[in-house]
Amino acid sequence: MLGTDSASRTAAATVVISPSGATASRGRFQAGEHQLDEAFAVSLYSLATALDGIPGDYPPTDTGSSGLGVAKALTALGLATSYTHAFTLGAVRSALQTGPALLGIPWLNSMFNPAADGRIPVDPHSPVAGGHEIELTGWDAGADRFWLTNSWGAGWGVGGRGYLTAADLQYLLSQSGDVTVPVLTAAPAPQPAPVPAPADPDAVFAAATRAWLAARHL
């Protein structure tokens, strides 16, 4: 989410965690700048497992977490100011106008292999493989499609992305699905490259003169 562009926030490659955020992380993060890489994601997940109210913290016990746990972790680190929930398709559409959301849904066996265009097939008769938390990145208003970014790499779906139709998302939400919407803090503005100070023309002339004299052993 932190690395996703939205109408209200520019994607970041790094984030800065304050000393208070580092304290709130319970030893999982040091204060300072952090790359948004796999190590960061694992540490964020670890903090989420400590805050989500689900028995078991990772490490050592991986019992999963939730979008609420991730939102709490982002808020504790100072990377989100708050979070809300969306309970209807209308609320999800509205939330996606300003940024991504976290979607927790039952993952059916039929959903492992999206179609060539990215559609995730939701077969209500397919067995449930487990629960899955995924990033809900955008809404295609023209086609009423909800696009997702999965954590399984570019080999899944269309470059790691897929979409749910409105009817399929509605069904998954009716099966104890949930949508959590963190209100992310603004990404730090890129710092412009420093402009070199103009050279002192007198110093440049003096240096050139010394070099000329030295070359002639004068």
Quick overview:
The protein has 218 residues and is α+β, with helices and mostly antiparallel strands.
Molecular structure report:
- With 218 residues, this protein is an alpha+beta fold.
- The protein is 28% helix and 24% strand.
- It contains six helices and eight strands, in the order E-H-E-H-H-E-H-E-E-E-E-H-E-H.
- The strands form two sheets. The protein has a six-stranded antiparallel β-sheet with strand order 3-8-4-5-6-7, with helices on both faces. A two-stranded antiparallel ribbon has the order 1-2.
- A hairpin with a 4-residue loop joins strand 5 and strand 6 (145-149).
- Helix 2 crosses helix 3 (67-76).
- It is elongated, with a radius of gyration of 25 Å.
Keywords:
two-stranded antiparallel sheet; 218 residues; six-stranded antiparallel β-sheet; alpha+beta; 8 strands; 6 helices; 28% helix
Broad structural category: alpha+beta
The number of distinct helices, counting runs of at least 4 residues, comes to: 6
**End-to-end distance, in Å?**
67 Å
Shape: elongated
Spatially, the strands of the biggest sheet line up as 3-8-4-5-6-7
Q: Report on the biggest sheet.
A: 6 strands, antiparallel
What Rg, in angstroms, do the CA atoms define? 25 Å
Q: DSSP strand (E) fraction?
A: 15-25%
- Give the oligomeric state: single chain
Mean pLDDT: 88
The total of beta strands comes to 8
Share of residues in helices = 25-40%
